[in-house]
Amino acid sequence: MKRGNIYESAANTLGLFNSPCLAKVELRVTCKGISDRDALSKPDPCVLIKMKSHGQWLEVDRTEVIRSSISPTFSKVFTVDFYFEEVQRLRYELYDISSNHNGIKEADFLGAMECTLGQIVSQRKLTKPLLKQGSTVSKSFIMVTAEELTGNDDYVELSFSARKLDDKDFFSKSDPFLEIFRMNDDDTLQLVHRTETVMNNLNPVWKTFKTSLNSLCSGDHDRPLKCTVWDWDSNGKHDYIGEYQATFKEMRGAMDGRQVQWECINPKYQIKKKNYKNSGIVILNQCKIIKMHSFLDYIMGGCQIQFTVAIDFTASNGDPHNSCSLHYIHPYQPNEYLKALVAVGEICQDYDSDKMFPAFGFGAQIPPDFKCYCVCVLFWVFPTYVYGCAGIQGVVEAYQTCLPKLQLYGPTNIAPIIQKVASSASQEMHTKEAMQYFILLILTDGVITDMADTREAIVQASHLPMSIIIVGVGSADFSDMQMLDGDDGILRSPKGEPCLRDIVQFVPFRNFKHGSPAELAKTVLAEVPNQVVDYYNNKGIKPKVPSEFESSRTFAP
């Protein structure tokens, strides 16, 4: 089969399609009546949200862990796209996570609830019992509340402190934290934010936090907000200090550098104590409205996605001439490398104006007469001096051209590839403009052999405009690769330096082998828009408006 036809076959096999998002929906979670598994302590609950895709449950996000609570109200908000034409199946899993670690693997499973997004949206508030192992109904309930996300994408940054709070502890001072609730139209309260606990301090200064105006007040600056101050206790029975009511309109008084203050009142003390004034003063030190730019703001402002692919040519893939090899070129069926490449590349190439993609190989022995650019075990997979392949089809053709000329060897080292792309990304970082963001797709069949160097390279790359996607091809055990993803904790370098941002997404291709690999692209690219926005927002780099860049840019067909 001709190379172009194989490329078209791969694209057709993927079933690539565009499904317009009807709306974005915010989901909030509350649990009631969680049973105590340990008679000596209460559970430390955390909820995972999963979506079903081709018969498999894929984790989307998870809440924070709330210590010692049988009826937690989580402050984490899940934002999901709502597709009217699709049955979007959701699964909420409740775990008791020990205070010694935040990992799910060693946590106790307390129950799960399955539903569809349509059910939640139609009811706005869905309450169902949690099912234990074996589908037995527990006495615990989970309530999911849905709210459509409006077009108001502004965020507000708030900084609170307090002074002279009531002391609720006998042998030490109070350990205060602040909760802010929004008053809904039906007079119910919705938790907006819970601060951290400041230990042993009657004059706490809480960390500055950001929340959307939609979450805070639904865009209504006069909407009442109930704010409550608590004294934290390790047993979960927090002591009530007091409360006050505010509006965002009042909070805006702190936008010009002035402080806004409220008396924290305990109604019981107000009635019982004759000389009672208050239980302390809560102070808003800063209120700043932040325009949170979207991914499309940067793309429409001229930011280009620079897509690079790196392919594993180690001997563990098998002889390409053998039909059992992962690199075997079937005359009618693309191999897993091609499927993964086309799935991700087809989407990324739409955001690159010249559509010239650098393509690397690693792990092979290169014949002397093969023209290439060498960096340790890294080399161009196309035998020319042109910096890049013309589109994803060009990468496929280059892959097929060089494959018969290489001797598959080893080792599986990917740190040089990350460092190579990071070198280009570091030059972009100094421009102070949102012009180029780099995505590196690494396709490999096994666990890497330079894990320490790779961790170091990823930590350094987390400071740059760069994201890394690693797809595991074949049936190898990829469990050690999960640590690079950072989902179960912050990835650190061998020296202990943490990643500034979570920039790595790892998935095994076999999870999508029996479904449409278009789902693979959805999964591995889902985090990229937020990674792009987070990088530029953290750097204070705003997107260009259309008039600031060349409107006559020409795009490759």
UniProtKB/TrEMBL annotation:
C2 domain boundaries: 8-130, 136-263
A GO term from the CC aspect: plasma membrane
Signal peptide coordinates: none
Family per record: Belongs to the copine family.
Protein name: Copine 4
Keyword Repeat: yes
Gene3D superfamilies assigned to the protein according to its UniProt record, in alphabetical order: C2 domain (2.60.40.150)
Top-level lineage group: Eukaryota
